[in-house]
Amino acid sequence: MTLLSESRVVLPIHRKILAFSFIGWIFDFYDLLLLSFLVASTSLTKDLSLSAYDVSVLLGTALAFTAVGGLIGGALADRYGRKPLLMITILVYSVGTLLSGLATGMWTLLAARAITGIGVGGEWAVAHTLVGETVPPHVRGRYGSYLQSGSAFARFFATMSGNFLAPWIGWRAAFMVSALPALIVVFIRSHMPESDVWLLDKRLARKRLGYLGVIAEMLGPALRKTTALAMTVTTFNMAAYWFKTIWLPTYFIKIRGLSLGDSAWLLSMDQLGSLAGYVAFGFSSDYFGRRPSFTAFSVIKAIGLVMVTLGWFAAGGFAPMTFVFMFLVGFGEGNWGCIGPLLNEVFPTSVRAAALGIIYNVSRGVQFLAPVVITFVASRSTFGAGIALAAPFALLAGAAVWALPETKGVRLAKTMREPSREIA
Question: Model's pTM, two decimal places?
Answer without folding.
Answer: 0.82
